[in-house]
Amino acid sequence: VLVSATTGSIFKYNTDHFNRRTTPLHAVEVGDHLYKVSFPFLGGSTVFEETLRMFKDAHPDERIDHIYTVPNPLRLKKADALIFYIATEDAAS
Q1: Residue 68: enclosing H or E segment and its boundaries?
Q2: What is the pLDDT of residues 54-88, one digit of tens each?
């Protein structure tokens, strides 16, 4: 019974939420040249790469300076997703 329930749950997740593993994410501007991205649970390298590609296309006048995550003490205890930040600078710099 447990194996059947687990298998059913996995297939249901894949059917209902597989796009979370492949769809690029929108970055939200939270400061001057600072953007926040909430990475989904089980989001893989495809989501990350496509998010960066979409970000670069949407912000051609900016260059990515660095990408970082929130330090452990600042993370929410019940977070089920990774939050990362994209820091940019003017492309002309």
Answers
A1: strand 62-69
A2: 999 999 999 999 998 876 655 565 555 688 899 99
Token pair, residue 43, equals 């989001």
d(CA 3, CA 42): 21
Return the ∠ at Cα 20 (arms to 38 and 66), rounded to 5°. Answer: 35
Cα separations (Å) of 93 from 9, 34, 63, 65? 50, 16, 9, 11
What is the helix (H) or strand (E) element at residue 45, kind and residue range?
helix 45-58
Could you tell me which residues are beta bridge partners of residue 39?
Answer: 82
Q: Which residue has the tokens 């998010």?
A: 51
Q: Are 61 and 91 in contact (CB under 8 A)?
A: yes
Under 8 Å between Cβ of 51 and 37: yes
Residue 27 token pair: 């970055």
Q: Which residue has the higher pLDDT, 35 or 22?
A: 35
